[in-house]
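Hi there. Long-time user, first ticket. I'm pasting a complex I've been working with (about 385 residues overall). I'd like to know whether the download I got is complete or cut off, because the file seemed smaller than I expected. Thanks.
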Amino acid sequence: MDRKEMHVTVRERVPIAADHVELIGDLFHQGLARAARSLSGLVGHEIAAVDGRIEVLPLAQALALVGPAERATVGVHVGLNGQIDAHVVLLFTPAEARRLVDLMLQRTCGGTEKFEELARPALAECGNIMGSAFATVLGDRTGSPLWSTAPAVRVDMAQALVDGLIATAIDERSEVLVGVTSFAETNAEPQIPVRGTFLFVPEPDGLPTLLQALERPA
Amino acid sequence: MTVATEPGPTRLVVGIGQLELSDRAEQPLVAIGVGSCIIVCAWDRSRRLAGMAHVVQPWSAHGRPREDARYGDQAVPLLLRRMSEQGARTGGLVVKIVGGASVLFSAPPGGEPLGLQNAQAVEQTLARYGLPVAARDVGGRHGRTVTFDPSTGEVLIRTLGRGEAKL
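Hi, the file is complete. Here it is re-exported in full:
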């Protein structure tokens, strides 16, 4: 393939400014609140986002968010496309993922022992919910609709799940704007929290459009 | 970048976008949890010198020459220069490449998978320097951990649930 035909060539990108991070942080929290409501409705228990934050991180630190690089991890990816492109990724340890599937399928705790036929669609649906929440919030704020891609669910090494995704988002200084949170079932009895890592990664090429929209009054 | 000549840990981890050399049998070079990235392993048989680059993206920005192991088009000449500085004959290097998978995220809309682009960029750049790829384990939908032995030039690939393979 000729170099001119390559689709992912790193362009000159403007470093991400601190005030931009704050603006996108507000949007991120709106998306999280919407996603948590939808997820709570689906599982029939209250699910809340915990410690949600937007950060600009060097590439290595962004990758460290997923935990030990080689650890077996369940990943769910949904792409958001439109005037702005972004990614939402859910990451769980296999035990956490099984607990979430138990909740979604209304099984007793420990009912899901492996990723059988129903587990993957259940996790994909979870990804759909998170993706749709962020597509709605971003679309409403920018006045331009976004659509989400079909969710992908994989079990593999933690870093292998996200290295390409995060690499596409690096800016000129090799830093990445990433939103991260955990979410937990708040009223579990007995208290067995569902914890996962949620990443929101907007692609830098769409950031100027997003920032213009955010600087306008809501 | 460092050349591992002092006593230290038993392996030298080559992080994303990094480049390392080792000429110590007891200090293999390791890249952990590789997805779409490409790991370039170059070995000088006579010096027992191994060099590894952990490439993140295929091409660097147009019109901005610099040495940066993140990009395939720059990692290759940088690796060759560093190995030459350590006495390697770059024309006789044995080169193997690993990675380039589409694990969870495969491609931008309408685009070619990033892992495939990374592999192509590295191979094209190696060809410009007259270096064929002696062995490759590229593509697929699974992550890999890559261990490169400076004493033998052997590359061990470990996967999750798919066992190990040697190049």
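A couple of notes from our side: The two ends of chain B are 25 Å apart (CA to CA). Confidence is low (pLDDT under 50) at residues 1-8 of chain B.
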